[in-house]
Amino acid sequence: MQESIDQRRRAMIGGAAKGIALGGITAVAGHSLISRAATTTSRAGLRADLGRARTVRAGQLDVAYFESGPQDGIPVLLLHGFPYDVHSYQEVAPILATRGCRVVVPYLRGHGPTRFVDPNEPRAGQQGAIGADVNDLMDALGIPSAILAGYDWGGRAACVAAALRPQRCRGRVSVNSYLIQDIAHAERPAPARIEWGLWYQHYFQSERGRAGLTANRRDVARILWENNSPTWAFDDTTFERSAEAFDNPDFVDVVIHSYRHRMGLADGFSRYRDIERRLASLPPITVPAITLDGDMDGVVPATDGRSSAALFSARRTHRIIQGVGHNLPQEAPRAFADAVLDLLVPTRSP
Prior knowledge:
The protein is of the alpha/beta class. The protein is built from 13 helices and eleven strands. Strand 1 and strand 2 (31-37) form a beta hairpin. Helix 2 packs parallel to helix 13 and helix 3 (127-140) crosses helix 4 (153-164).
């Protein structure tokens, strides 16, 4: 029975993916498009080796994070998405640490043991908030600059931080290219195939959706894992380990605000007004970047990178990772780690 369900799900998502023409290896605005197969398959149920668990006061949050590698290594922040957690980097972090990086993997606001300092602080989930969190964490850890790497919410946080304070970003790795949201034009519909994959974002606009996420957060997350990554054979242990992060008391409020704000149906909070004003111009990424797409991503279909090329003014390489879905660092850890390490090459040059 389960096998039949899995086959139907994969066929459904695969049908959407077939509509995207990937072509061969081409040049994109002076940068190379590299099609590369994932070199490591994530092992279901693998025990995480993320380093030492710590907590630090950073801006509005007490941030829970893992750290590994030498203190004097080049800092790398690995930022997870929704509905996932730090275990997306359970294999990426050790690879980078053994190569001499100082690796920091935080729980984002509303996830895991990360908590708001002030019980009266609005539980903002808007892009300006998660971007500000990155800089606040770097301040708290005494990190002047770092490579910022992420996907989904984490990729957006990295994009915001890199665009607004490029002097603090040595380079950026992210899934799905440029992720700053164009809130002013949020009412413009995406192609129907993409809107179908965003069902949860529409669901969360209603109070029924808030109640559904509150009551069924694990069920909602599991459906998203399956649809977002139809070829990823994760097991119950892998899912439940990450699902514990959704028990955070602020999870629902942060998530709901995030998805309502991005669709223009919830106001941003005053603390982030200036950040959001700057983001409204869709500022370019001016630091070296490597962007990745999984060719089986059930949320954002893979592209050749051309549509976002103008938003990268420095060296940018776009790669398509074959057989991989939305949670790219956990599904293809070697490919994600390689992207970070490739950005280190010019950093280490004399």
